[in-house]
Amino acid sequence: MGSINEVAELVEKGKAKLVGAAVQDALDSGCDPTEILNKGMIDAMAIVGEKFKNGEIFVPEMLVAARAMKKGVEVLKPHLSSGSTGSNGKLILATVAGDLHDIGKNLVGMMIESAGFEVIDLGVDVPASKIIECYRENPDTKIIALSALLTTTMPSLKDTVAAIAAEDFRKDIKIMVGGAPITQEFADEIGADGYSEDAASAATLAKKLAGAA
Ligand code: B1M
């Protein structure tokens, strides 16, 4: 019988080949998909992060854990999403320049997509110029959503928001930001229109900002 603990252990150990089946087992035994995500995967990544901080593991171990989590999320995705229609409009999503973390961004994208947005995901380490170019190609975009997952890329988030703010289209869009080191206070300071702490509240915020709440 599948369990959330087993998923957590496999994510922590970076067993990418086994995680998918363990997630499916947990689902088959009636575990709640959100609980599998939070307790089986996000909590496991927090442990991985702690071990890295304490020097017990190194970057390669963080990387294999991330790969394992991604495999698990693939299996979980249809159970978390509601089948989007894109009816709330377009949203451009990116992790800012200098930052390679994408799991949190991907979860945010998934939840926002299920909230009815068409998400254009530009990936990680995205320079402001690429975001601006993407907006020019998609001028019906309503929101630009930016992730920064390192304290060292918070200045990059600030610069990205400033670069977008300098564009003539600033008044036509909303900017929302998030990521582990980001706070409401920082979001206000850099001139973002919204901040949210996690993927679920990011979807609620996107709807509010798009006037669809
Ligand atoms: Co990195 N890393 N990492 N890492 N890594 C952290 C973030 C760290 C906290 C680990 C630690 O020391 N405890 C630490 C940062 C410390 C700091 O900021 N001062 C750290 C470090 C130091 C580094 C390197 C510098 C290590 C090195 O090279 N010496 C390096 C930097 C590389 C770079 O980006 N330039 C690095 C590299 C990596 C890997 C590439 C190996 C890998 C990432 C692989 C990948 O993403 N594809 C990695 C990983 C896996 C982690 C940890 C272990 C896990 C990150 C994760 O996926 N968490 C992480 C420790 C941790 O987070 N506890 C760590 C799960 C994810 C669901 O959470 O990303 O917070 P999170 O997203 C959340 C919220 O933040 C929020 O919602 C999400 C879902 O709830 N959210 C938003 C995110 N974006 C949002 C946007 C929104 C709203 C909400 O609106 C737009």
UniProtKB/TrEMBL annotation:
Please, which domain of life does this record's source organism belong to?
Bacteria
Keyword check for Metal-binding, yes or no.
yes
Q: SUPFAM superfamilies recorded for this chain?
A: Cobalamin (vitamin B12)-binding domain, Methionine synthase domain
Pfam families, per database record: B12-binding (PF02310), B12-binding_2 (PF02607)
Q: Which UniProt keywords apply?
A: Cobalt, Metal-binding
Q: Where is the B12-binding N-terminal domain?
A: 1-88
Recorded hits in InterPro entries, A to Z, give:
Cbl-bd_cap (IPR003759), Cobalamin-bd (IPR006158), Cobalamin-bd_sf (IPR036724), Met_Synthase/Corrinoid (IPR050554), Meth_synthase_dom (IPR036594)
- Start and end of every B12-binding domain? 88-213
Keyword Metal-binding included in the entry's annotation? yes
Specify the protein name. Corrinoid protein
Organism equals Muricoprocola aceti
